[in-house]
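Late entry, evening session. Most of the bench is empty. Finally got around to the prediction I had been postponing all week. Sequence below, unchanged from the version circulated by S.P.
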Amino acid sequence: MTFSNTSIVDKAAAAAVRATPAPVAKRVRGLSDRAIAWLFIAPAITLLLAINIFPLLWAVYLSFTNFRANRPNAVVEGVGLRNYQRVLNDPDIWIAMQTTAHFVFWTIVLQTLIGFALAYLIDRKFRGHAFWTTIILIPMMLSPAVVGNFWRFLYEPQIGLFAYVVSFLTGLQPSDIQMLGNVSLAPWAIIIVDTWMWTPYVMLICLAGLRSIPDYIYEAAEVDRASPWRQFWSITVPMALPFIMLAVLFRGIENFKMFDMVTLLTGGGPGSVTEVASITLKRQAFETWATGRSSAFAIVLFVAVFGLANIYVKALNKVKQR
């Protein structure tokens, strides 16, 4: 049997082409897949950096100066750490931080307990659970402006439904129930609204954690004759704990920045009993126009939240690794 030289050459060339490494073929065609991917995402990354990183660096710069936004043409001078010293030694700022911590603590406690309880009930998959899940999620779908105005109307002592419900339960006169005008009740009025609005968010995260628990674990526990109470504390809570901690992290960060709800309901009053850190920062920046000092305050808040979140994430990772 004889073979032509042309046929042998053609087969060898085809084999060489098939054996060509993929990177070489990509370089022959032009850009590699990685280069093309970076080319597409580079504009988005540049935009995100411009929106997030530049304002942060600008605030850091302003925190070391005496710049005032209402006097943009004035001479800007460096003041060193003077703004940070004034922020850390200001008693009003520490009061605002304590108020913020009060809001963060109680909103997280209530939202976590109620959200996990709702998630546990919905996970039972009773009849109509999909309908009730949708109803529970409605507050989270509303705008904070809508929620704030809606609850401000409910809290009205003369015509608000909340006052009449409390009056029916306690026997007090509706005009005596001043939720937003009472120094003791105003903070709890905001906590109730925030809990009503964002408990569904915590419920969704907890529900995802409950749905991720394999059924065979419960089946094995039933074989071992473990009671429902024992299954709850030995299986449900430990395996859903990373999701619960994740919900606490998200809500803690958001509630530390609480601004719109407080502004719509009380504006920081009565007096300054509900003036959280974000409202104090806004007043220093846009009412007293102490831009440099307010920038230092913003950096202090950022470092505090970032540091606490970093510690919390490390604890979360340890829980996930168990």
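Two things to note before I forget:
The CA atoms of residues 76 and 300 lie 22 Å apart.
Confidence is low (pLDDT under 50) at residues 1-5, 24-28.
Will write this up properly tomorrow.
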